[in-house]
Amino acid sequence: MRSALKDILLVLAAAVTLGTTTARAGDSAADAIAKAEGDLAAAVSAGAVWRLVDKSSGSSAVGIDKLLKTAKKKLEDGDGSEALRIASRVSWAAQAGITQATAQKDAVPFY
Fold it and tell me: What is the pTM of this model?
Protein backbone atom coordinates (compact mmCIF):
# COMPACT_ATOMS: atom_id res chain seq x y z
CA MET A 1 0.00 0.00 0.00
CA ARG A 2 2.73 2.43 0.96
CA SER A 3 4.72 1.59 -2.16
CA ALA A 4 1.71 2.29 -4.38
CA LEU A 5 1.19 5.65 -2.67
CA LYS A 6 4.84 6.56 -3.21
CA ASP A 7 4.56 5.58 -6.88
CA ILE A 8 1.46 7.74 -7.32
CA LEU A 9 3.11 10.71 -5.65
CA LEU A 10 6.21 10.26 -7.80
CA VAL A 11 4.13 10.23 -10.99
CA LEU A 12 2.20 13.32 -9.89
CA ALA A 13 5.43 15.15 -9.06
CA ALA A 14 6.86 14.27 -12.47
CA ALA A 15 3.69 15.48 -14.22
CA VAL A 16 3.74 18.80 -12.36
CA THR A 17 7.43 19.26 -13.16
CA LEU A 18 6.90 18.57 -16.86
CA GLY A 19 3.94 20.94 -16.99
CA THR A 20 5.94 23.70 -15.34
CA THR A 21 8.92 23.13 -17.64
CA THR A 22 6.69 23.40 -20.72
CA ALA A 23 5.19 26.65 -19.49
CA ARG A 24 8.65 28.09 -18.84
CA ALA A 25 9.82 27.00 -22.29
CA GLY A 26 6.87 28.86 -23.83
CA ASP A 27 7.65 31.98 -21.82
CA SER A 28 11.32 31.91 -22.75
CA ALA A 29 10.42 31.32 -26.40
CA ALA A 30 8.18 34.40 -26.33
CA ASP A 31 11.00 36.37 -24.72
CA ALA A 32 13.46 35.10 -27.33
CA ILE A 33 11.09 36.11 -30.12
CA ALA A 34 10.70 39.60 -28.65
CA LYS A 35 14.50 39.92 -28.42
CA ALA A 36 14.88 38.63 -32.00
CA GLU A 37 12.40 41.25 -33.21
CA GLY A 38 14.50 44.01 -31.66
CA ASP A 39 17.73 42.55 -33.03
CA LEU A 40 16.18 42.22 -36.49
CA ALA A 41 15.01 45.84 -36.43
CA ALA A 42 18.56 46.94 -35.54
CA ALA A 43 19.99 44.80 -38.35
CA VAL A 44 17.54 46.29 -40.85
CA SER A 45 18.50 49.82 -39.83
CA ALA A 46 22.19 48.91 -40.18
CA GLY A 47 21.57 47.34 -43.58
CA ALA A 48 22.94 44.04 -42.34
CA VAL A 49 20.20 41.45 -42.74
CA TRP A 50 21.62 37.99 -43.33
CA ARG A 51 20.12 34.94 -44.99
CA LEU A 52 20.44 31.54 -43.30
CA VAL A 53 19.91 27.92 -44.17
CA ASP A 54 17.85 26.33 -41.42
CA LYS A 55 16.17 22.96 -41.16
CA SER A 56 12.84 24.71 -40.63
CA SER A 57 13.07 26.38 -44.05
CA GLY A 58 14.36 23.44 -46.05
CA SER A 59 17.60 23.44 -48.00
CA SER A 60 17.53 27.00 -49.32
CA ALA A 61 18.69 30.15 -47.56
CA VAL A 62 15.96 32.51 -46.37
CA GLY A 63 16.07 35.92 -44.79
CA ILE A 64 16.11 36.02 -41.03
CA ASP A 65 12.83 37.95 -41.17
CA LYS A 66 11.17 34.85 -42.63
CA LEU A 67 12.80 32.68 -39.98
CA LEU A 68 11.36 34.97 -37.31
CA LYS A 69 7.90 34.48 -38.82
CA THR A 70 8.49 30.73 -38.68
CA ALA A 71 9.45 31.01 -35.00
CA LYS A 72 6.25 32.91 -34.26
CA LYS A 73 4.21 30.26 -36.08
CA LYS A 74 5.93 27.46 -34.14
CA LEU A 75 5.13 29.22 -30.87
CA GLU A 76 1.48 29.61 -31.88
CA ASP A 77 1.39 25.89 -32.75
CA GLY A 78 2.72 25.02 -29.29
CA ASP A 79 6.27 24.05 -30.26
CA GLY A 80 8.08 26.32 -27.80
CA SER A 81 11.45 24.59 -28.00
CA GLU A 82 11.63 24.91 -31.80
CA ALA A 83 10.45 28.53 -31.61
CA LEU A 84 13.18 29.22 -29.05
CA ARG A 85 15.83 27.57 -31.26
CA ILE A 86 14.84 29.54 -34.36
CA ALA A 87 14.49 32.86 -32.49
CA SER A 88 17.94 32.36 -30.96
CA ARG A 89 19.41 31.83 -34.43
CA VAL A 90 17.67 34.98 -35.70
CA SER A 91 19.10 37.02 -32.81
CA TRP A 92 22.56 35.60 -33.39
CA ALA A 93 22.44 36.30 -37.14
CA ALA A 94 21.14 39.83 -36.62
CA GLN A 95 23.88 40.65 -34.11
CA ALA A 96 26.56 39.04 -36.30
CA GLY A 97 25.32 41.01 -39.31
CA ILE A 98 25.52 44.27 -37.36
CA THR A 99 29.03 43.38 -36.17
CA GLN A 100 30.10 42.61 -39.73
CA ALA A 101 28.59 45.81 -41.11
CA THR A 102 30.28 47.88 -38.39
CA ALA A 103 33.65 46.21 -38.94
CA GLN A 104 33.49 46.75 -42.70
CA LYS A 105 32.03 50.26 -42.57
CA ASP A 106 35.31 51.88 -43.61
CA ALA A 107 36.55 49.04 -45.80
CA VAL A 108 38.44 50.05 -48.94
CA PRO A 109 40.03 47.95 -51.64
CA PHE A 110 43.59 46.82 -51.00
CA TYR A 111 45.90 46.49 -54.02
Answer: 0.71
